[in-house]
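Lecture notes, structural biology module. Today: joint structure prediction for complexes of two components.
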Amino acid sequence: MPPTVPTGTTSFDSSLPWALHPQVSLRPESFGALAYHFGTRRLSFLKSPTLLAVVSSLAAQPTGRDACTAAGVAPDDLPNYERALTTLAESGMICERRAP
Amino acid sequence: MTLVTTERPTTERPTTGRLVDQFQLGLDAPICLTWELTYACNLACVHCLSSSGRRDPRELSTAECKTLIDEFERMQIFYVNIGGGEPTIRRDFWELVDYATDHHVGVKFSTNGSRITPEVAERLASSDYVDVQISLDGATSDVNDAIRGIGSFDTAIRAMERMAAAGFVGFKLSVVVTRQNVSQLDAFKALADKYQAQLRLTRLRPSGRGADVWDELHPAADQQRTLYAWLLAHGEQVLTGDSFFHLAGYGESLPGLNLCGAGRVVCLVDPLGDVYACPFAIHDEFLAGNVRSPGGFDRVWKSSDLFTDLRRPDTGGACRSCGSYDACRGGCMAAKFFTGLPLDGPDPECVLGNGEALLAAVGDTVLPQSSPDHSRTSPRTAPGGPDLSGPSGTPVAMALLPRRPDRACDENPLAAFDPHSHPH
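The predicted structure, tokenised, for the full assembly:
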């Protein structure tokens, strides 16, 4: 069974549970990571190691905001990370998680 | 000239800043890897980057290809761009495609369409991990066939019809922009739309046989400006493989990284396993190593002298004082090399005209030629080679001249497969 049920392209709501799309692979790099979506064949760049930590932990955290906090994002920085996650949600790299 | 110097200052890698600065220093694995599977081809396009034609008996075996795919998987190379030659000619082509996708390495392959049967199209349409690029260099058969050979337009269109009929949405229609087809950009877009494909435009490079025809085929200065405006107007709807960053000198950057990725984020593995800095630079000067050597591809990518050298920050050379340098970054390394220009100076198609002046100075100097030449007939040496300066100024169709194979493996592997009878 896939770890998540993708809900398709959507905007990001940090109070909801999220996960990496099952067709997306992450490759850590010194600047952060590359993310490749095998379904849309799109490549995205995660521009910081912290953002990589956030995205990697999404599936294990109850909400998007919790994933940010767990990765050590300071409250002042939250809007920046929510913007980055919005971009990733819009391109289908991350998707809302529903109970399987 | 040598690219490799013994002194290589180490550069502290910044942890913040523009991605382009990060990419300049190279990544742990390529973002975009081109893998030419074979030099064998049933066509003889006049501008072929890899001077393809005859199969090379030394090409990687099926087992060696699979070992290489294993390595790509370990390095998390998300997908490979497979080309050739005509890659579908290899008998193990589908076996290798399946092996790659089973090992989380996506495949995008380039083809002239001659082997896209309805069954193949169905099969491709059912895979999420395989993408297809069909090559076409004219929106009409006269313009296309002058470059790619008689009948190649019909072959490509038939392949696109089959892809569309099978329901493959979003395959790529891949076009090399030339002086002869630059006026057909809208027609190419319409063709792509008609078959639910995406248009991909790339730059003509003076590499391989392209060196022989570059003077006649590369877009004129006014056409470059037209192309730039057209690309800006169509934005991300049209793919370019970051091909035209030399045009950024006109002002606005085009979508993409706008960086020469050679040896930094891009490289080429040729059919023999030789690793070159980029698909347009098949020459000993840009040969970093071979995947058959100890340490394999991983070691060549991470620690070859050539790639280490290419990842040093650019000095800008003669372009340093130019106001456009930050935008165009001096253009394409391969285009400079094969036209005899210094690598740290302007691109031969520099939009400010700095390349043209230098080209004039190069004059009749003997130019470097791509090292391996697998052409069935070499335009450089064959006395009956194509006359590209036809009376109308358009290239004359290159006949696919038959030649007795020197050895069994020289024979066109498609000898028994004849989508169109090529008039000789």
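Point to remember: The two ends of chain B are 42 Å apart (CA to CA).
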